[in-house]
């Protein structure tokens, strides 16, 4: 078993991702979260490159971290000056991080085309920059930019660059596959040469995912002796992203017996990944390995029945080891076993030939053929299940609604208004409300009508709203264009949980209404369930 | 150089993905597109498992494919009967595909826990099923489900399963890493044993991405002698997905000199991937290697300037080889050249520093920051361009509209009605129309009002309607859920052409209105252009 240094560069290389833009405050929050996860190093940014990073380094000194050490990133000194007089090098010292990472060119075409200095001069830049900084900080790393491409083009020169850095006394030579074009066997072959050349040096890897091989290349590097792995959370990064630490860490710890995080910290991984995608305001990729929403989701009918008997049959690890959990999806592929599983969660032990199961199954299949998507809307399914079980009561009856969008000037937004008439018990409520768009107006009018009967609805909020126009050919009667079916998914939440409901119609207002209605019913149903459980707990304590 | 059989299972294993649900029509369209790309085999589905797949196999016989052969998928015969009497096996023959793939258990715990038969009996199921089908089809493949996990648990048994299939005369033994938990070196070690055991057998690989290693494992398998690779477009599939053919194919062809597709077909890859994500109605993953929108997008300032001098400095391959293209982010150049190019099409030769260009550019940037997407809506862009050039005339003025959706019974659809007031020349028109949903009603009322002035509008039809809820902007004022911005894309067409227009608002009715308005204006503008060209042609012939 080996200790592997995890060097996170989400805050620096990760922000090169097209859709990732972080403020200094975002970076401070993410730093604390990464420290809590327990990575070894957190690359905070490049102080010379922008004001955000400068502000970050001014602030971060005021935080005490439990596990990680923050590092600053910069390039070798400018060829026209010396380290002492290079503002970029000085800004690194001003960052006062005590850990620094310097990147330098190791690919001859870059020295010529990008840096535009003689090859010899670049060797000096590497050596002088690192030698100057060596005694200023506790840890000093050298990122050998484009090392693998450089080696393929001019091995002697690429290795000469490493020698310069090694002689300057860096703590690790980090070999970068900057363009993400290398294959695992190339990593293995080239690293074998490097180890022969520099047997004393400790090596690191910095991989990019342009060939969808960044994780494999990082694991190969560790196999070839690397003890320092650079990457980002969720694989954020320029182009196709950096090596994904959310996959590298569990692979190293669970499958190869290495240690990357403090004892028992691995279960924090999924929440950390989600938190960072929230702060970065990037939609989480549901198929992401280990930490994704679908990573342990089972849809196929056979799989579901097998997984219920023995999870290992279709899961390579226990979801809980990385803080994730198993999900059973519904779909016309899935069949009875899914329904049995869900029913069981509500305390119903049903047989797969139970007429109730068969009825519910045919209902679901028919609705899914009309575009309802229960695998994405579990709350709507649970309502359907509990209604068919005669368990969910009817909380209100809609007598009618009217939604109006009125535009009275070419460049002004329309005015949206909704009226709703509902009946609760014997009482009829007739309300009206405006809103930002028709669905919002309808939602506002609904709440106005129902909150006096069900005050807990004030706890509930709409979190997300998704619309899909279903491919026209799905609607049998050849409707086209604006008349094809629309599926609306609404995600709602309160302080305890989040739930997704679905509606389908050729009319987007009707589809939205169905999803809103389910969302409200689910909230009220959930409250009743809670009351029942509390009452039962009460009863148990009394007896 | 080796020929590698590409076996696409997007239509079968791909639909196990949480968000992928395909109708029979979708599957037929995707089949034609995969054939055009030139994969070797297309696994159409599992005829016994659901009506969609049955319908697909009824239809697909009527299509002639240029490159690919369609295969049907199913399991070994039921233990309680014989192949002759097993409806699942018979449904495979009914599919009449001439290529069949049978999967069987090779992991002892699955035989016990999932199949629930003695290990010996499973060996018979494999042999009998394949021997029975061998002479019925031209190509017969065996998917050795869970082979790698099975081998790790009980090597003798896993190999015994392969022997049964081999003796039955299958064309390839496809080794499956069903749970996606294996590492490349395990693939290498285990495949070395298999090749020693079965030197005559041709081998295939079927990998899943649960460890983010599916591409690496597939490449390793080819290195270890596999000549048949199974996977899906965009890596769709259960949990974390299947091995991604969009990465495997270019890696094999561009980096390892294998042949997977017909000569010069690789540039079709990006469009194929996009088309299939459209039909599957799944948002394309922008960081996806090779074919993703960001795969060759450069954001970092240094990178951008270097890439302009020499693309190879930050690109592992030429984007065009896979039909993708370089994108420079945070840079006016892309936008400018696009404007110059379009203006030229309308006979305007502009300089990139022309104040008109700069003004239009800032207009576009501002609108794109609000969610307008002109790369997807060329017609709206051309209108904007020609308006700024003072060339597109104003065909009508909207004085106002009102759209009403009224529901008067809980289980009845709402009634949608729209009124529109427009002015054309001095004349005011005030019309009303019903429709299937609010947008359709608005469209109907608009046409009613305008067709008497512009009869050619009767030639025009709405072909497609797309809605996307945009992620709340970081700069937003805290609007959430139903109040976040909505982008509507409308595709319209007449006998000559098709055009796409865009609208954006927090109000879906307003966004739809904007797209409808552009669609109608573009049609009228197009007619005027045509008249001008005809008049000029006329003039030329007369002189």
TrEMBL record, chains A, B:
Enzyme Commission number, as recorded: 2.3.3.21
SMART domains linked to this entry: LeuA_dimer (SM00917)
PROSITE patterns listed in its UniProt record: AIPM_HOMOCIT_SYNTH_1, PYR_CT
Domain Pyruvate carboxyltransferase, first and last residues per copy: 4-267
Broad EC category: transferase
Record flagged with keyword Amino-acid biosynthesis: yes
GO BP terms, alphabetized: isoleucine biosynthetic process; L-leucine biosynthetic process
Alphabetized UniProt keyword annotations: Amino-acid biosynthesis, Branched-chain amino acid biosynthesis, Isoleucine biosynthesis, Transferase
Name this protein carries in UniProt: Citramalate synthase
Source species: Desulfohalobium retbaense (strain ATCC 49708 / DSM 5692 / JCM 16813 / HR100)
